[in-house]
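Let's do one together. I've listed all components of the complex below, 273 residues spread over two lines.
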Amino acid sequence: METLPLTEPVLLILLSLAEEPRHGYSILKDVEQMSDGRVCLSTGTLYGALRRLLEDDWIQRVEQKDTSRGKQAYRLTARGRRNLQFEVDRMKQLTRLANLRVAAKEA
Amino acid sequence: MRAVYDWLLRLYPDDYRRRFGEEMGLVFEQAQSERANQGPGVLTAFYCREIAGLFRGAWQEHLREFSNRRFAMRTQFRFPKTTPILMALILAGVVLAIQKGAAIQASLPDVNPPVGPIHQAEHGFLPVIVLLLAPFYAAGLIGWVILFALRRSGSHRLDATASGQR
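Okay, and this is what the predicted structure of the assembly comes out as:
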């Protein structure tokens, strides 16, 4: 099961799916774009993460009758969205604390 | 390069490959065609990343499958639910027997009864045969108990499970 805190690739995949359902290639592109080219996922890494997220019911496959099997789309489940929100809140708190500490040191 | 990629996908467990293999191949093709326009350096880095990702992913999936299979085997060998009750009853019987023995010992007078002269026993043919065969009886009994316990644990179903998976 995926546990908090999430790894950066998993967080970026979830953020990519938070906006809208996406196919595998669309997720790859979006992750690369969100991280300014810093995180380039291989297909092996992407589908390993997708398999775990599917298994933990954080994401689900979108039922599409008119698409081929190769163009499978994924979307966040309610559980996945809730856990993503927890992680974002945790990071916000961490960032706020880090800013306060750094500012205090500089002063 | 797609053929090489498909061949490397064989490193993954069968279930995983059936579920994601075709999709992964398609995504790989799309990413490859995009990288091909960005120069040979970018394309080479892409291939290296993909191959490394496949090896790492296949290794992780096999580890996961192995751990799941090991867990499944453990459930086959678990004791039946009645075992704790039977064990508790046996333990209670042993404790009661010890207490009873202690009570009998306490009730007897603390003297050694007179022991008469001990004569050497004269064995006939039948007792000798029985004594000779006693270890075999015991071995047979132990074997039967083991088989009974294995049958109760459900391990005989493992063969059927293994043949069913094939």
